[in-house]
């Protein structure tokens, strides 16, 4: 299983800025190892975020996203104490879900 995501959610007025740092190798499938063999593609395909269980973001990613991707987005209507949940699924079927409280 992948390392936990680092999620920060800070409210300012009626808007909350959410910052997410995901731990994932994100291989494109085009690089070669020391022996000249192609390293298989391995990347995050789907990212979803929810506020108190209600979906607020859905994204489809591909192999062009960098290793350990950073995602930032703004949510309206969140307040201190609300829960932000972020999930991803990669092309090998691995998944990760982590949660943070809005401060």
From TrEMBL:
It comes from the Bacteria. InterPro entries: Ig-like_fold (IPR013783), Ig_E-set (IPR014756), SoxZ (IPR030995), SoxZ_dom (IPR014880). Residues 7-100 form the Sulphur oxidation protein SoxZ domain. Pfam families: SoxZ (PF08770). This is Sulfur-oxidizing protein SoxZ. It comes from Comamonas odontotermitis.
